[in-house]
Amino acid sequence: MADNPITAFVRLRPLSDSERERGEESAWRVRGTVLKLRREALQREGRADWLADSEYAFNAVFGEGASTADVYTRAAENALPAFIRGENCTILAYGQTASGKSFSMLGDAAIPGIGAGPGLVGLAIEDVLRRLASSSTTRRHKVSLSCLEVYNEQCNDLLAPELTNLKLFERADGVLVSGLSEYNFGLGSVAEDTEKLTVLLRTAERQRHVGSTLSNDRSSRSHLLCMLTVDSWVAPASAGEVAPAGVQHCTLQLVDLAGSERRQAASDHQGHEGATINKSL
Prior knowledge:
Radius of gyration: 21 Å
Order of helices and strands: EHEEEEHHEHHEEEEEHEEEEH
Number of helices: 7
Shape: globular
Largest sheet: 6 strands, mixed
Helix content: 10-25%
Strand content: 25-35%
Distance between the termini: 23 Å
């Protein structure tokens, strides 16, 4: 937003089963609010570590027990009023491989069967649909969703898998991905639109390139961009008016980045893949 354009949050994931079996413990702790900064600090523990007693302040730090809904309410929900007013907004997850980005962003669309619930992408889009449905404004809206994968420096359409290696064009108003498909929500029933959204996100996630790494058996090897576009306008007041007035166009970009990594590749393919992941960040 204009008065606070960038906010940064950190979420600590629980230890994995293999980490617990090795007797590992979390190396970080939440220190609490730093009064001078009105932010929360993440502190590294361990005397032998060169980062010991170092602190990093963020707008908020979420501990292992925080739910994705908690993260959304505090970290993402505040962006929606500005988006609905017509501002472009971006919510992205960044971190190393196996840090829990896809779990946070996509929830059970990425990891089915564990009762994760919707991720930040689903929660944000559902919230937008709900706000527009309950709005008393006389403006009319068109809401559409596109899902783009960036893999090995190529752009692929995740909702239309046959569309691969799409071309990028820079324009005065931003970047255009030529030929990228979009799904238009009906805006008649929030429940129906939400049900369809779940199917779309699961479809997109299934099409992503994934692979096994030392840290994660199913690691995302590509960057995912879910772009929710809202076009709104005031309908002509009379038959004599041809063009709509007050046209607005804005995009909410919800990004699940592939994990940044520094590791020895098991093959030439993985080496090239890892290099392009870091290059695309």
